[in-house]
Amino acid sequence: MTVDEWLLESDPAIRWQVLRDLHDSSAADVEAERSKVATEGWGARLLAARDPGGVWAGGACFPSGFDGDMSTGQPWTPTLPTLTLLRELGVDPAADAVRVAIEAVRETGRWEHAGQWFFDGEVEPCINGRTVAVGAYFGVDVDGIVARLVIEQLPDGGWNCEAEYGSTRGSFHSTICVLEGLLEHERATGGTPESIAARDRGEKYLLERQLCRRLSTGEIIERNWLQFAFPTWWHYDVLRGVEYFRAAGSDVDPRLAAAVDHVRSRQCGDGTWLLDKSHPGAVHFTMEEGIGRPGRWNTLRALRALKWARRG
After folding, report:
1. Between the N and C ends of the chain, which has fewer C-beta atoms within 10 Å?
2. pLDDT digits (tens, 9 = 90+) for 252-280
3. What span, in angstroms and rounded, lies between the C-alpha atoms of 191 and 138?
């Protein structure tokens, strides 16, 4: 079986993205496959997991009644990670079940932080960035969160959830979450001059550091960023960084070269990429065969990133 056949025998969420990003299939064929995400496979399972009360697992970022114990990882079943995953699956925002779910979250969802309405956001940039991404994708007005994120950008161009405690340096984790959110918002609304400028500064923050290196010494900041996970949730890694620039339609900046080379180097002899790691915590269900095994999501993401890089 070829890598292409292996990818296409998977869930509709992968198949439609293979058709769009690797095959350059017709818009009709892509949309026909994409339409299945809300009614079949992983997408349908996620939509069906929503509570009768409107949200997932009774909470926004954490399940209802969560006691704060993350010794076995952060739970990934509440509303924000679930909507994040639905966006990454590419579920059609216009599908009936999706519209019903988003309206229920709009009407009932509140943050654990201080009871803010879900689509008003809360205080941490990494959370607000992902909320902007899902809100913009699903057609909700998140302009207020965007304005807050623009104000909260740090002098180095990044964002950091520890800024409220005095940190003045950007965090790759927070920054990638915000950049993805600003990009989705820009696609949906055109953005604002301020948000567009903030996204540009945020991109420069990553590029100046070659997506994983200290600006001061050139040393790799975290070795585990060289391994790839999916879902990424709020965590950064090099493939996620390269994928952001691909999604943004950017020119292939020379400062991306080492990161792209690293993605290429991780390809196995059979043409696949492994699921190198998985961020611990409860999930609705697993989508891959296990850590250290060929991963369809990482393979799809790496192949389309390299395809984009070659065009540059």
Report:
1. N
2. 999 999 999 999 999 999 999 999 999 99
3. 16
